[in-house]
């Protein structure tokens, strides 16, 4: 397990309260504990434990996928931004800026960034919500969360950021807690995507928006063989060359192909309760931004 459930919920409530005294009393003393946890990353349990699912192109027991994915991201945590550069040829930075620039968010809002990883999306979101707003980085992987926290702290970005290790399928926050919930390049790694979408809907305030940025299905037939060649022939070799980890990069390429295509994910968001669901393809469908609202 990660944070014990009661402590995790306590931290989540303190984060949402937004009181300076509350943060000092609860969150700050956890930092030394948090560093100990990051040295030996714990894994939260998934409620999705029966049947089989995919891990890349492999079929695995559903209860095992979370551990397998965790091992991948623990392996690549320190090279995560490099990984995204290799997978997208550097274009992911522009995708992320556009993703945040077009989000429904305003000064003073509270935002949850799931699969927050190294914190690059959180930094962009904090610029949008300003000094009166708050951004919570949520990630199931303690190693990834540690990298994000350290990078932001080293840049002097402390106020208005909080960090919670959590499973997207069972979030430790009360209903209607956030004005915006985002997840970037993380949903495809979740075992039970439907459960994660339902949780995003639950913690979103009425009138709020949820947004998903994820690798998707290329729309141009002529580009598909080029994209496949890069994904399955070039990317693993680059992973071996730069990170000495070809297998993790092979999984990440495979996970993209197993992720629901654009229309399917739009339908899943509707089934989770979201209204006015739509998506926008970027770079010919290499990635897509999905949006939905709680009304």
Automatic annotation (TrEMBL):
The gene is ubiE. S-adenosyl-L-methionine binds at residues 118, 139, 167-168, 184. Pathway: Quinol/quinone metabolism; menaquinone biosynthesis; menaquinol from 1,4-dihydroxy-2-naphthoate: step 2/2; Cofactor biosynthesis; ubiquinone biosynthesis. GO terms for molecular function: 2-methoxy-6-polyprenyl-1,4-benzoquinol methyltransferase activity; demethylmenaquinone methyltransferase activity. Coiled coil: none annotated. This is Ubiquinone/menaquinone biosynthesis C-methyltransferase UbiE. NCBIfam families: MenG_MenH_UbiE, PRK00216.1-3, PRK00216.1-5. Keywords: Menaquinone biosynthesis, Methyltransferase, S-adenosyl-L-methionine, Transferase, Ubiquinone, Ubiquinone biosynthesis. One of its GO terms (biological process) is menaquinone biosynthetic process. It catalyses: a 2-demethylmenaquinol + S-adenosyl-L-methionine = a menaquinol + S-adenosyl-L-homocysteine + H(+); a 2-methoxy-6-(all-trans-polyprenyl)benzene-1,4-diol + S-adenosyl-L-methionine = a 5-methoxy-2-methyl-3-(all-trans-polyprenyl)benzene-1,4-diol + S-adenosyl-L-homocysteine + H(+). Methyltransferase required for the conversion of demethylmenaquinol (DMKH2) to menaquinol (MKH2) and the conversion of 2-polyprenyl-6-methoxy-1,4-benzoquinol (DDMQH2) to 2-polyprenyl-3-methyl-6-methoxy-1,4-benzoquinol (DMQH2). Belongs to the class I-like SAM-binding methyltransferase superfamily. MenG/UbiE family.
